[in-house]
């Protein structure tokens, strides 16, 4: 990874509407077919569909799958932001790719309701009524309700997918509203997947304790408003945990979608929730390969710190987590697409491919960082401009300086500002 080239690329490209297509050479042909088919049906970017498919698959794998390298443990959760313009197919692609996961969640909910109603008809007391421990998806929740869901699913093997149609609606206003309750800190904990989540709020009925919470996040945000998503969260690690899926040019429209592609995707997701995968522990064929990436990212972090790119220096270190997580998801996805239970060994070529995807994602993080910086740049006032110019080179002839400016400050105003500055 050439960090200088990536930074140069971000500086030049952050205003562009499109980025390149995410590399897809390491995923099964059935998954590629589904991605292309979905993008064509919706006339949407393949990048969006790819990111959504990986995030949803990881959430369905949940706590059933653990990937270890002898030192670190990871699970297959990710925080994914689908970034585009208004009406740029963010929500339509998410909703389309989630249809099969929604169907699985609906089956679980229907089964729960049947059990609940049967228990009520038998006259069971409230404490004897069945609890819903298997919910797969939570959508557009309040923070209190989301905590309750996490409490309900704390013993479930599949993970929880938190789908927020507009990420700003949750992490923008709510993050400020609940700043005293450390909502962002809670999501830093949730990202880990193994650290216990302990939550107590004034408005909550009881304290929440989830020993190994699992949550994956999938939502959309407009590129021009992404600075609002991270406003006030510049240096706490929140930004560095996100994957940004930026659009490539829309796919050519497909008039008649391929039903086989949709069916293959449905079968893949159903297999991912199977109890046959429980307690699947994944190891790497070559642990040194994974740790070599860690060493490389430390080197790149030092370069970014020297360039005072503090947010990006932290982001590059999180890429090691994502290489492990994406390698695990891709490893499982490819096996499930072929109808097999994943083996317990992640091959070297899968790790290499995951690293390619992570490098592409880091480029997107650099672009997003430049977007945030450009939004935060404040236009200086005329007074500040006069003071800065005088400090830099001196304004010897105020009247000539004023006359040289079209619709600029008058000579008396320039004189007033400079006299006030001298007095200070």
Walk me through what this model shows.
- The protein is an alpha/beta fold and 424 residues long.
- It is 54% helix and 11% strand.
- The chain has 17 helices and 11 strands.
- The chain has helices spanning 3-13, 29-42, 46-61, 90-97, 99-121, 143-152, 167-171, 173-177, 183-192, 226-229, 259-272, 287-306, 310-337, 348-376, 382-393, 398-403, 411-423; strands spanning 65-68, 73-74, 79-84, 137-139, 160-166, 197-199, 208-210, 215-222, 242-245, 280-284, 345-346.
- Strands 4-5-8-3-9 form a 5-stranded parallel sheet, sandwiched between helices. The protein has a 4-stranded mixed sheet with strand order 2-1-10-11.
- It starts with a helix and ends with a helix.
- The model has no long low-confidence stretch (mean pLDDT 87).
Radius of gyration: 25 Å
Beta strand count: 11
Going by helix content, strand content and strand pairing, the class is alpha/beta
Write the element-wise H/E pattern from the N-terminal end onward. HHHEEEHHEHEHHHEEEHEHEHHEHHHH
Record keyword descriptors for this entry.
424 residues, alpha/beta, four-stranded mixed sheet, 17 helices, 54% helix, globular
Give the topology:
Layout: H1 3-13, H2 29-42, H3 46-61, E1 65-68, E2 73-74, E3 79-84, H4 90-97, H5 99-121, E4 137-139, H6 143-152, E5 160-166, H7 167-171, H8 173-177, H9 183-192, E6 197-199, E7 208-210, E8 215-222, H10 226-229, E9 242-245, H11 259-272, E10 280-284, H12 287-306, H13 310-337, E11 345-346, H14 348-376, H15 382-393, H16 398-403, H17 411-423
Parallel strand pairs: 1-10, 3-8, 3-9, 4-5, 5-8, 10-11
Antiparallel strand pairs: 1-2, 6-7
Helix pairs in contact: 1-14, 2-3, 2-11, 3-4, 3-13, 11-13, 12-13, 13-14, 15-17
């Amino acid at each position: 990874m050439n960090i200088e080239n990536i930074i140069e690329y971000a500086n030049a490209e952050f205003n562009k509407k499109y980025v390149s297509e995410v590399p897809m050479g390491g995923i099964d042909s059935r998954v590629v077919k589904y991605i292309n088919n979905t993008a064509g049906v919706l006339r949407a970017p393949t990048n969006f569909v790819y990111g959504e498919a990986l995030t949803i698959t990881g959430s369905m794998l949940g706590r059933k799958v653990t990937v270890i390298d002898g030192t670190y443990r990871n699970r297959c959760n990710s925080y994914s932001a689908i970034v585009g313009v208004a009406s740029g197919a963010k929500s339509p692609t998410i909703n389309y790719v989630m249809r099969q996961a929604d169907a699985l969640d609906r089956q679980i909910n229907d089964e729960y309701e049947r059990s609940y109603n049967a228990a009520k008809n038998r006259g069971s007391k409230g404490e004897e009524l069945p609890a819903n421990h298997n919910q797969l998806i939570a959508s557009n929740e309040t923070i209190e309700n989301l905590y309750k869901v996490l409490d309900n699913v704390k013993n479930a093997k599949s993970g929880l997918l938190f789908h927020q149609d507009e990420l700003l609606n949750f992490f923008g206003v709510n993050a400020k509203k609940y700043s005293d309750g450390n909502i962002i800190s809670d999501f830093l904990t949730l990202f880990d997947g193994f650290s216990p989540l302990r939550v107590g709020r004034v408005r909550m009925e009881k304290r929440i304790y989830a020993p190994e919470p699992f949550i994956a996040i999938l939502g959309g945000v407009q590129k021009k408003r992404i600075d609002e998503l991270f406003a006030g969260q510049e240096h706490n690690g929140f930004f560095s945990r996100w994957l940004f899926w930026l659009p490539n040019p829309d796919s050519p429209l497909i008039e008649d979608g391929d039903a086989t592609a949709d069916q293959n995707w449905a079968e893949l997701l159903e297999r991912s929730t199977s109890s046959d995968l429980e307690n699947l522990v994944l190891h790497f064929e070559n642990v040194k390969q994974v740790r070599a990436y860690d060493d490389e990212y430390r080197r790149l972090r030092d370069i970014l710190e020297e360039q005072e790119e503090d947010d990006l220096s932290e982001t590059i270190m999180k890429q090691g987590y994502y290489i492990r997580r994406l390698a695990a998801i891709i490893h499982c996805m490819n096996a499930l697409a072929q109808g097999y239970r994943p083996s317990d060994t992640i091959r070297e070529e899968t790790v290499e491919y995951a690293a390619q995807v992570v490098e592409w994602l880091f480029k997107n993080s650099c672009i997003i960082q430049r977007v945030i910086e450009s939004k935060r740049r404040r236009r200086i006032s005329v007074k500040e401009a006069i003071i800065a110019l005088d400090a830099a080179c001196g304004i010897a002839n105020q009247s000539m300086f004023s006359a040289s400016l079209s619709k600029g400050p008058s000579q008396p105003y320039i004189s007033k500002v400079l006299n006030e500055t001298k007095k200070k």
